[in-house]
Amino acid sequence: MAIGVNITRDIQYRIKIENGFLAKQNFRKYEASKIAVVTDPKIRSLHGEKLENLLRNQDFVVIELPRGEKGKTQKQAEKILSKLAKQEFDRDSMIVAFGGGSVGDTAGFAASRYMRGIRLIQVPTTLLAMVDSSIGGKVGVNTKEGKNMDGAFYHPIAVLSDTCLLETLPREEWKNGLAEIVKYAISNDYQLFDVLEQNSNPLNWSKGILANIIRTCCEIKKNIVEEDELEIKGLREVLNYGHTVGHAIEKVSGYRIPHGTAIGIGMVYEAEIAEKICILKKDKYARIIALLKKTELFVSYNGDKSKLIATMGKDKKNKEGEIRMALPVEPGYIIKDQKRRSISVNRKVIESILRKVN
After folding, report:
1. Is 243 tagged catalytic?
2. Domain 171-356 is of which CATH architecture?
């Protein structure tokens, strides 16, 4: 199946979702003068032979990044840029991001900067990347001040999601992707919420259920991004449920807490906040918490909570020093504040919930 993304007349691409199609993919049709495959050592050891077979008889190099958030830094982006320059890549060259979210973000960021932009193809290898990070054009790296502080909007020319790549995915990586799927369900799609209530363990999903869930998430994000690509209208904030607290937890932990775990904790805290300020009724709150427990995303956070609010204060959604959150009103719907899909939350309320939830 394929989903068309139409940002503008000049920015259009397709998201392809299928099992096993990558072996038949023809990269020669892109007529790239040179190709840089950006990946990490683990993905290369598992799947590198598949991609190198696709690129045979073409001029390509492989650039490896450290795994996870360690590869998502300004230093690693500069390493990519330096390699491209030394290999004499030109404006007709192309980057293929072959990996999870961190690889896609860093490779995409480098693609946006090299010669003011060369073509980019996203080949996500994790559930998180397939349902979320490879779509929508957000690319960037972390700085010492916070997550995704150095970034850009830069769309790929294609997203190629071959679900057979998920067969080697570790359990923790399934959880990272599941957190984003649950986020979509709570914030945007009550029907997906119903599906997850009945199918809470992704390791038990059939190929058909997996493909349909990935497609649903991609369509949700595609529709939002087409409407509010640059987050000017405030609509795209709806995708940030759980992420205000979650990103702060990642940063404060030095990224030792995985993304899915942090976002799961964030969704719990932010549901608690929504219930506390009376925008989320108790029965709806109970249903959301039940799903987070069922999907094993309801976990304890034992880190330094005193630093979380200061870190949240640097979130990109904030305005005039106020901490803003995308909070649920019910499964499938985030509160609307005029045109924005986030609201200001009193810091004392946040502090009370941080103290309450273990």
Report:
1. yes
2. Up-down Bundle (1.20)
